[in-house]
Amino acid sequence: MLKITDLHANIDGKEILKGLSLTINPGEIHAIMGPNGSGKSTLTRVLSGDPRYEVTGGSIEFLGQSLLDKAPEERARAGLFLSYQYPVAIPGVSNIQFLKAAINAQRDARNLPPLDALQILEQTREGIKRVNLDDTFLQRPVNEGFSGGEKKRNELLQMLLLQPHLCLLDEADSGLDIDALKVVGDVVNTMRAADRSFLLITHYRRLLDHIPPDHVHILSAGKIIASGGMEIAAELERSGYRGVAA
Fold this sequence. Notes:
Elements: E1 2-11, E2 14-24, E3 29-33, H1 40-48, E4 53-62, E5 65-66, H2 72-77, E6 80-83, E7 90-94, H3 95-109, H4 117-130, E8 141-142, H5 148-162, E9 166-170, H6 178-191, E10 197-201, H7 205-210, E11 215-220, E12 223-228, H8 230-245
Parallel strand pairs: 3-10, 3-11, 6-9, 9-10
Antiparallel strand pairs: 1-2, 1-4, 4-5, 7-8, 11-12
Helix pairs in contact: 3-4, 4-5, 5-6
């Protein structure tokens, strides 16, 4: 699914990723934990093609093809999805308009016919039930005036409808209460499939209690310094990042 080899990347001349390597196989869920400034969000931005970040070394293969050769929109159409830690608002564009454009762009990339307005509405109404939103949400401008929880649910809805191959969730648990966290867990667990993988970025074990990962990695100073299972997350709670690094 995803193979990252010796990845180096910087922003504004400052190197953030310093030789990161990671392989995610189809059907796997990986979690990356690490202190602030270690490069967790930078990794997701580089994978999504954020032009602010410069890759200075290494390679990234996604579904057997070089990801670095593709523009951000090509990566999305190929099946890469990023749930942002701080989603941006898009004034003047309703959620239903945004979802219709995104779904049909994805379908076009997969050589499928576009869906009409009624078909889109039927799909989105089913999706908003699963993320505990109501129909009025579809007519609201994208993320404008949304609470933190509504923004997270909105991105879960997008993920449900787009059915990507690789889902990058950057601190999906940030600022969520227990009920909203359970929604995140339910959506991800129901989307688990042999041809879909997830990369979870988180500070806390509580997300992993809802979404059991296959692998847990510790990222520090731009490199993965430890990998294992849930025992690593448990060790973090006992001794912190310094204890794991030691």
